[in-house]
Design goal:
The chain has 16 helices and 13 strands. By secondary structure, it is of the alpha/beta class. It has 2 domains: 183 residues, 3-Layer(aba) Sandwich (Rossmann fold); 177 residues, Glycogen Phosphorylase B (Rossmann fold), CATH 3.40.50.2000. Helix 4 links the parallel strand 4 and strand 5. 46% of the residues are buried.
Length: 373
């Protein structure tokens, strides 16, 4: 008699920080067993509804959004969305009959994991940040297993459920073998100059762009420094036409597909401190200046950044002072090879290259344990 293939639901999304780990886990599951069936559950209208099908997986959307703490009037529909999402999640789980349900954080994971725990289906959540989101904190006592990327998470989660396995990163970065010369040629930069790569996430960062718009004089005075500046699609028209962007040692791009080449070219990287970003930066191993976004729940990017700063693996600059400090501190770092080497050595110690496989192994293990009981 033929054994039924394992069926796994992966739920969550809302941002690349949730979607890329989810897809990496799915890919690792498929690498282990091509016959595994995987269904994603996301939030309607969010980027996972586009990105997941592009990665080759089926996704269903729930009518769900986050709870607004500051603009309470925007929560009028929240109870209705939650009830509707719970009903749809229940129907999807009943029809798909998963062996394990995985939550990666984000709006959709709450209703999906809630239904799965009520049905006594084995559940696993993957928490990317050093300060967990409210969804995962609420689910922690109900789920079977919790995979984290940072130590000392016992203050948020039951200690007996925690496994420190790291954050999954894109396979393209792990497998990249590009050369520095190839990177400089691709972006049309001078390989004799010190190079900064500044990225504010896939959509760009408004405060980075506002700061750069005011830094024309800095790049005129420091022609030995060049910068690749990802401004984001929604900001391209405004900032790509700025005086700073017109300088020869400044290159503005709305979005960068070849992140492997951008990372390879950089002497120093300026970035936000999202969990997925800094997991990638640890693997890249370049000196990093982190600027945590102030516009995220519970200020979790500052917690992420401090986990690196405390072991001298990164430099932190607060978002509120970037116009005064960011480029000057980055310039000082470019001139200090000893400090660059220290940061590079220390950040590499935090790299976990096989997180997706380890998490996938735990998912399969959960399914096996459940079948044997």
């Amino acid at each position: 008699m033929k054994t039924r293939s394992l069926r796994i639901i992966i739920s969550g999304g809302g941002s690349g920080g949730h979607i890329f780990p989810a897809v990496s886990i799915a890919n690792a599951l498929k690498e282990g067993d091509q016959n595994i069936e995987i269904l994603f559950i996301g939030a309607k209208g969010k980027m996972e509804m586009e990105k997941v099908p592009k990665a080759g997986y089926t996704i269903e959307g729930l009518w769900i959004s986050g709870f607004h703490r500051k603009k309470m009037w925007r929560n009028i529909l929240f109870p209705f969305k939650l009830v509707a999402s719970l009903f749809k999640a229940e129907r999807l789980i009943r029809n798909f009959k998963p062996d394990v349900v995985v939550g990666v954080g984000g709006f959709a994971s709450g209703p999906t994991l809630e239904v799965a725990t009520r049905k006594r289906i084995p559940t696993l959540i993957q928490e990317q940040n050093s300060y967990p989101g409210i969804t995962n904190k609420l689910l922690a006592k109900k789920v079977t297993r919790i995979c984290t990327a940072y130590p000392k998470m016992e203050k948020y989660f039951p200690a007996d459920k925690i496994l420190l396995l790291g954050n999954p990163v894109r396979a393209s970065l792990l497998q990249s073998q590009v050369s520095r010369k190839e990177a400089f040629n691709y972006f049309g930069f001078d390989d004799s100059k010190k190079t900064i790569f500044m990225i504010g996430g896939s959509l760009g960062a408004w405060s980075f762009n506002r700061m750069m718009k005011k830094q024309t004089d800095f790049f005129k005075k420091n022609k030995e420094i060049q910068i690749l500046w990802q401004c984001g699609k929604i900001y391209e028209a405004e900032y790509a036409a700025s005086d700073t962007a017109s300088l020869q040692n400044v290159k503005t791009m709305a979005f960068i597909d070849r992140m492997d080449l951008a990372y390879e070219m950089a002497d120093v990287i300026i970035a936000r401190a999202g969990a997925g970003t800094i997991a990638e930066l640890a693997i890249i191993g370049k000196p990093v200046v982190l600027v945590p976004s102030p516009n995220v729940a519970e200020d979790h990017q500052t917690f992420n950044a401090m986990a690196f700063v405390e072991v001298d693996a990164a430099i932190l600059v607060a978002d509120k002072v970037i116009e005064e400090e960011l480029l000057e501190r980055t310039k000082s770092l470019l001139e200090n090879e000893k400090k660059q080497s220290e940061l590079s050595t220390n950040i590499k110690k935090l790299a976990i290259t096989d997180a997706a496989k380890k998490i996938a192994d735990q998912v399969v293990k959960l399914a096996s344990e459940n079948k044997s009981n």
